Here is the input.
Amino acid sequence: MRILFVASESYPLVKTGGLGDVAYSLPHALQEQGADVRMLLPGYRELLQELDEVRILGWLHIQGSGRSHDVRVLEATHPAFSVKLLIADCQELYDRPGNPYLHPDGYDWPDNAERYTVFSRLAAMLSMDLLGLDWRAEVVHCHDWQTGLVPAFLASEPDRPRTVFTIHNLAYGGHFPHDEFMKLHLPGYWWSGEGVEFYGGFSMLKAGLVYADSITTVSPTYADEICTAQFGYGMQGVLQANRHKLTGILNGIDTQLWNPSIDPYIKAHYNAARRNPGKRINKQALLKSFSVEAGDEFLEKPLIGMVCRFVEQKGIDLVAEAIPTLMKETQASFVIIGAGDHVHEERLLKLQKQYPDRLFVYIGYSEELAHLVEAGADMFLMPSRFEPCGLNQMYSLHYGTPPIVNHTGGLADTVVDTTPKTLNAQTANGFVMQEPSVTALIDAVLRAIDVYANKRSWAKLLRTGMQSDLGWKNSALRYLDLYQHLLA
Ligand code: ADP
Ligand code: GLC
Here is the structure.
């Protein structure tokens, strides 16, 4: 089956969050099942610098915002990619450093509508082989608002590929004003409540929802949640109307990249059968990266880790609020890695000054520290207000670092709260809060610390998590099933 995979980021070339992880692992998992997958990415500056061999396949002339662009289509190789890599190379739109969506000063690039419309137009054209490469996609699989227009461009084409649109996060809608719609020369008949119009502007995410043959999202619980006003970001009506074509398929994790028995970023390797001394050495190494020389006494006390984008979604504010109480009532220490909204960054740095011996904060993006936290912390905190899937709780399970999570989205689908009953049944693998509040968070952390003190129960919990099958294979098969179904 020929699949064109279209995304705005993909590890290790460009990644801002879990979308980058999925857009790397899923196409490879599909290929492993025998699919013929090509991956299309925009040619951001740092991405271009990392490519190995590059070949120019041709040029397409594409309508932008009040102007048009000659976009060069490149075929490239990179040691991490075994799927074929295609790059949309257009200097004036993508050749910019840093975060793909944001100006270095933190605001959205003002021409994002144009950047991703051109990218989507190109994807649609390539999938129909308008460049004459002798390869036509049977299925085009798009991800999040940046690629939402692809199904819309294809919808009116005769003899077109089938389209799948995956929602990774409904909070980002790709909303733009009407005059942008006009400047982009988008088809006038799209402009209606049944089309892309959304509260007076237009939404690229909505375009994906309306025009794709199938909508998926990254966990079954999130598929239900987004049909409600609480989680729907205004799209709940559209989603309810399209419920028949909406499925939740849980993400997997890449067990080559996230695996404590081979992970090159961590200090000592370990596995479910033999966790120590590996886990302890990693804990020491993690603390050392914050200049703490931890002796036995310190190492006995629980270390709680957190790695995330600093945005409200992740409940980072709840953690900041809970820290003073947790410092008073427990002997735990905390390692928090992340970047995002400056208010959260500043608040955590201030707290770090208040508790310099027990709170360690790193502001920034560090793949290495992210892995070391999974391996070195005793527990992983993820009190998200909503979480379409969440990968970090699955990495944590795999690394023997029980996650403490809120009951929502993919967290609800992957983490089983520890109670005497679930411990007995060997299903317990973490700690679940029933609501995203400071009290629920404190309560869950206190419960986790209680169980941590009981070595036998703790070992049981870790084993359950580490032995569970979290790889991509099952999900890849479900996507293939869905593609088959669309083609039938
Ligand atoms: P989301 O996609 O909403 O950010 P996920 O849990 O699905 O949440 O995925 C987050 C991914 O991004 C994980 O691979 C995580 O390790 C990584 N990540 C987030 N923040 C950082 C950071 N500051 N440094 C390194 N990796 C990070
Ligand atoms: C989004 C979601 C996250 C999910 C990731 C990959 O960024 O916030 O929950 O795991 O996409 O699907």
Observations:
- The CA atoms of residues 60 and 71 lie 5 Å apart.
- The chain is about 40% helix and 20% strand.
- Residues 278-466 form a domain with the Rossmann fold fold (CATH 3.40.50.2000).
- Residues 17-19, 21, 307-309, 337-339, 365-367, 370, 389-392 surround adenosine-5'-diphosphate (ligand 1) (CB under 6 Å).
